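Supplementary material to the annual report.
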Amino acid sequence: MQIAVVGAGLVGRRTAMALVAHGFNNVALLSQTREAKTCDGVIVGQGWPHPAAQDAEIVVLATESARQPAMAIQLVKSGIHVVTTADNPADIERLWALDDIATEAGVTLVIGAAYSPGLSTLLASYLVRTLDTVDTISTAQFGTGGPACAHEHHRAMGSSAREVHEGVLRTSRGGSGRELVWFPDPVGAADCYRAGLADPFLLHQAFPTVRRIESRQAATRRDRLTSRLFMLRPPHVEGLLGAVWAEVRGHVDGRAEHRAMAVTASQATGAAAMAAAFCKELAGQLSREDGERSIRVGSQSAASSGNLISLIKLVSNDVRLWTYDGTQILTTSGETGPIQAARKWRIPGENGVIPRLL
Amino acid sequence: MFMMFRRAVFGAAIAAMTAAILRIFGGDGAPPQRGGWREVDPSELQPIKIN
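Predicted assembly:
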């Protein structure tokens, strides 16, 4: 099976390399602007359409976010499965609106197969499905990938945030709502703020009954101060530290519970791992004769995928996966059992009994 | 001058008593000794139901 990766930046190159590592031997990497650098086991070229990718059954769009909706429409109409790595909320909503076209064409359009959205929504979606009922979903991200990602991080900080409140998508001021999020080492604790991120929209599509869905990104005081100006200095070639964190709060067997998971890896590597994992899943489905699909036709995301464990296994080859083992608190009533807390709580003593707050 | 000295001693005594009460009856101040981030293998993940 041939897979084409359009966009030869950090994410595009790493996606091509991850696909080769997954065993695909016909991968084309196409740059939009210049001849792509050679890559072991990958055919490189420039421009789209390109003769080296004319038989591609799956196309990964790793170009700048704003260019992806227009390309995705053409590809979907041509009957090609598309995996997009867009992270701008407006582009994500434009891509999501292509659901009818993709369904009619009988192809899958994967939306937000990147770091955040992507890994963050995958973890959140997995955690949601481990609870009986869910009240709140929170995600947070730290770091940036390549220069385009850094520009997007800067834009997100200075634009309005979308979040779900009482089950309805609403707009909040970007840069507000500071929350100290504890990411796994080597990132550690970081102040995170509301920003123009796409996670709440995608999670709301998958879990429309959840009352509160919010997403934050880590930023410094300088990031917040300068977010509404142009970037004062050029971004780094690559941000080497990256992490995403997802937490859900809800109930299991009638008792309150909250659980947290995280991923650490550089953002470009993590985004590439997510895009490559979706390609692997899609390719497996296309080659299967029974026609069973865990990723349905139409617009899909990591949050709405039917095969979360398989996707997590695939991405874990390239990223580090973490879970938070909380401390246990015994309640006085006894019948409700211990609460597994995903945050640090003070314990009066080993297995100490504390009054239950209701 | 003597009055001011008495007030200072009284103030210091109150502060010392407050500190002692908080030190004795307050929390132990030690962070939780269990729990924290743990790296997991996907095979350890809890099976889930997809609707």
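Chain B is about 45% helix and 10% strand.
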